[in-house]
Amino acid sequence: MDASTLPNPAAAPAAAPADFESLLAPVVDRAYGMALGLTGNRDDAQDLVQEAALLAFRGFHTFRPGTHFRAWFLRILVNCFYASARRRRPEVSLEGAAEQAPLLHLFIQSRAAGMHGAGRDPAHEVLDRIAADDVARALDALPEEFRVVCTLYFMEDLSYQEIADVVGVPVGTVRSRLHRGRKLLQKRLWQAALDAGLAATTVPGPMEGDV
Amino acid sequence: MSHIDRYTCEEAFHRLDDYLDRELPADQMDCVREHLETCAMCASEVEFEQAVIDDVRGKLRRIRAPADLMSRISALIASARGADPEPS
């Protein structure tokens, strides 16, 4: 996606309204996945996709046929999310700036748990423990400024510049939010893996006979 | 590239995120890659980080919308068009 694929009200010709649903149907799974990462729960994710779909339908005359519909729609989805997030959480959270973002958290924790032995695949062993919905919840637990860029990063194959175009911030801001957001996400993923019982099978337990 | 141009672990680590996302200039991508070829520890960290990114991507991208979401959107659009909503 590049700037030429984003909504441009001045562009013509307009797409026919009848095309809208046929363009939306193939991208609705990806849109819902992104909405789940942004909102953290299924009901809000469905509401967000529906709200974005209605808004996109009403603004469909600004979509240029032949350009990237998914990018166009996801930008509307993100804008909808920002608008609804401001309604639901009007206070601006600064917790993200203060929270410690440890380096290589999953790498270090999984190694400490004895998962880095020969022939093992510790990253997959950790992630295999975590259901997709719980990964989405871990994303949602990030402070909003990190959550949006991380969700776009994981759901779409976008460059930093392309994420910056969607979110409307400088590329350097995307870089710092993404790098920090990924580190914070690793903390939450490790906790999710522990909650799923990871440590019970990977951390060396008591010697046999100690029980 | 001469030996004196090679990155230390610290220099390579500093560029880890940008390297994973292929957002470094080509010459720095080469320097990091060369470091990884000679440093097993850094290489294992990069491999781990890449696997985490790939797994998170894979899980999130396999999420499917509820089966009736598209039909509910169609009903909303039908209402917006002024027509009768589709029967549910």
**Low-confidence residue ranges of chain A:** 1-13, 205-211
Report the radius of gyration of chain B as a whole number of Å: 24 Å
Helices of chain B, by number, come to 5
Basic shape of chain A:
elongated
Mind summarizing the main beta sheet of chain A?
none
Oligomer classification: heterodimer
Beta fraction of the residues of chain B?
under 5%
**In percent, how helical is the residue content of chain A?**
55-70%
Q: For the record, give the distance between the C-alpha atoms at the N and C termini of chain A, rounded to a whole number.
A: 58 Å
Please report the total strand number of chain B as a whole number.
0
Which descriptor suits the 3D outline of chain B?
A: elongated
* H-E order of chain A: HHHHHHHHHHHH
Count of extended strands of chain A: 0
Describe the fold and architecture.
The complex is a heterodimer of chains A (211) and B (88). With 211 residues, chain A is mainly alpha-helical. Chain A is 62% helix and 0% strand. Chain A is built from twelve helices and no strands. Chain B is mainly alpha-helical and 88 residues long. Chain B is built from five helices and no strands. In chain B, helix 3 (26-38) crosses helix 4 (40-61). The radius of gyration of chain B is 24 Å and the shape is elongated. The A-B interface holds A 17, 20-21, 24-25, 28-33, 36-37, 42, 46, 49-50, 53-54, 57-58, 104, 106-107, 121-124, 126-128, 130-133, 135-136, 139, 154-155, 159-160, 175, 178-179, 182, 185-186, 189 and B 17-18, 21, 23, 45, 48-49, 51-53, 55-57, 59-66, 69-70, 72-74, 76-77, 80-81.
